[in-house]
Amino acid sequence: MTQSGVLTLLSDFGLSDTYVGVMKGTIAQVNPALTVIDLTHQIPPQNIAAARFALMTAHPYFPVGVVHVAIVDPGVGSDRRAIAVAIGSNSARPTSFLVGPDNGLFSGVFNQHPIAAAVELTNPRYWRTPNPSSTFHGRDIFAPVGAHLASGTPLAALGDSLEPDSLVRLAIPNYLQIENLGDRISRITGCIQAIDHFGNLITNVPDTMLSGKNWSVVLGNLTLIGRQVYSDTLPGEPLALVGSHGWVEVAVNSGSAQTILGLDWGSPIQVVIVKG
């Protein structure tokens, strides 16, 4: 297996406390030469769905062999499994590694890439301590394991092998396309799968469904024609567009769509497509 010496961190720990810094300290104790990149530590507390989306959309931008340590873990200290996963079609040369709780956080990546191998983190040799805190596995298990993995430790050394099909997937519904609602018209039903810092509502409808077509988003009695950029509407007005992440989103120019439209994670949406 080829590791890159690059490790990323994602959590809901925030930046007001020392949790993130302490995790970096345990990484440095293993290997101070590693490159450590913060994806974000501002995931809403305990929001596994938000963490799933953030990691899924960040994952493609890193080199082969990167180790992603992701911790949004409301079940810390319970019987939920601690895992490490190799992603890719070749177990001898994975494209990346994931380390964290087996609670669905990684399921967005699982949906886009094959799982080469997975283990439960049962070998305390690679933990900070054989007696980890029941409330801070990020410090005592996940960060040091990630550091060992990024430094070249084989995945198999970290614990017991797991069947990929046994890993937890988060119950994010798939979009559904309904054809032939009328002359050249079809409809996609979907939902809000993420909400970003600006209050933009990111749906689970990918831009690949819209290429070369005229489309709009329907939210109850509100219809939003698909636009190119936020400034295609006046400040304070809602709009629909494809975000940089490649998913249809609902936004408000210079405002928060979440606040103004009163929608949240899981809220249903429809995309209506008119074929040219």
- Number of β-strand runs: 15
What's the total helix number?
A: 5
Count of separate structural domains: 2
The shape, in one word, is: elongated
The helix/strand order is EHEHEEEHEHEEEEEEEEHE
Major β-sheet strand ordering: 2-1-3-5-4-6-7
Name the poorly predicted regions.
none
Derived structural class: alpha+beta
Radius of gyration: 20 Å
State the separation between the terminal residues, measured CA to CA.
48 Å
Strand content: 25-35%
Name of the CATH class of the largest domain: Alpha Beta
| Averaged pLDDT | 93
**Can you say what the CATH homologous superfamily of the largest domain is?**
S-adenosyl-l-methionine hydroxide adenosyltransferase, N-terminal
Helix share bin: 10-25%
Structure description:
With 276 residues, the chain is α+β, with helices and mostly antiparallel strands. It is 17% helix and 33% strand. It has helices at residues 19-30, 48-58, 107-112, 137-150, 257-261; strands at 6-11, 35-40, 66-71, 82-87, 96-101, 115-120, 160-161, 176-182, 185-195, 201-206, 214-219, 222-227, 238-242, 247-252, 268-274. The strands form 2 sheets. Strands 2-1-3-5-4-6-7 form a 7-stranded mixed β-sheet, sandwiched between helices. It has a 7-stranded mixed barrel with strand order 9-10-14-13-12-11-15. The longest helix has 14 residues, at 137-150.
Please sum up the structure shown.
With 276 residues, this protein is an alpha+beta fold. It has two domains: 6-166, 3-Layer(aba) Sandwich (Rossmann fold); 176-274, Bacterial fluorinating enzyme like (Elongation Factor Tu (Ef-tu), domain 3), CATH 2.40.30. Helix content is 17%, strand content 33%.
